Amino acid sequence: MNRMQKQMTIGIVLGLVVFSIGAALVYLLTRPVPVEKAIGTAVVQTSSAALLDQQGESGKTMRALPQGAVVNLLERLRSREQPFVRVQFVNARDVSKPGYMRTAELGQWTSPDAPTAWELLALSRPAITSSEGDRRRFIQQLTQFSERFTGTPEAHQANLERARLYYGLANEAKAAGKPAADWKADLASAKAAIPNPAPGAAESVEAATLRKEIETLESSESKASHLAADPASVQRALQIQQLELAARQLYRDGEWEKVLDIANRMSSIDPNRARAWRATVQNALKELSK
Q1: In this predicted model, what pLDDT tens digit does every residue of 129-158 receive, in sequence order?
Q2: What are the backbone dihedrals phi and psi of residue 102, each rounded to the nearest 5 degrees, phi first?
Q3: How far is CA 44 from the centre of its chain?
Q4: pTM of the entire structure?
Q5: CA 210 – CA 200 distance, rounded (Å)
Q6: Which of the listed CATH numbers 2.30.30.40, 3.30.470.20, 2.60.40.10, 3.40.1350.10 matches domain 40-111?
Q7: Domain residue spans in the chain?
Q8: Residue 88 φ then ψ, to 5°
Q9: Per-residue pLDDT reduced to its tens digit, 1-35
């Protein structure tokens, strides 16, 4: 092989190498991004939200998503205080690389899986000091959840929480001296919302306690004149109401020791309710240990 032939051969080989490298780069840059497994979806609530390449304020914006854009959730969200959540934007024409978005910029969390959907719904749960309007809006969300996941343990919990909220609204209205017509409808809704136990199973302590409280409030109107003449009874009723509201919130948050502390404070006012709350916590702990 003469010198010219060698140079031509080397040139051809180099050309093939360059072509191969270019083809590989084109493939890497244009290949479709795989759609990762999602556990649910969320919707952008702000006018624009950044999809970041990493969580934290140092993350670089990969793209800006407009209000109303739906993103797939790629990880469980445990708390509203979690600053960032891993997501992926997917639609019929485009699939983004997975990235992170600020939790505060997202809303309308949902999932086709009942346990995950229940965790996401908890992000919208109003605080114990929330307005009546906020609590009624959450009642509607609980109703929609229980209708969507009928028959699941999570739907059972949603109905029980709905009953507690209705009862709390009725109890507050009555304690505030509002006419019976203003609170009896909520009381009836609370009674109707208490879920029935599964066939062959006993009613839970929490459901049975709540049912008894509703029945007590139903029958209390005839005792109103007696309570009005007995300021000490009124004061005890208000103390129990405040303790009950605090205990329910702590119970939902899994703060078992704090619920027991409240039960101890209840003992001197209403021993029966104190015992019921202790039993409720004990049952919850038994379920967790299974």
Answers
A1: 678 899 999 999 999 999 999 989 899 989
A2: -70, 130
A3: 17
A4: 0.62
A5: 20
A6: 2.30.30.40
A7: 40-111, 115-289
A8: -145, 135
A9: 555 655 566 555 555 555 455 544 444 444 577 88
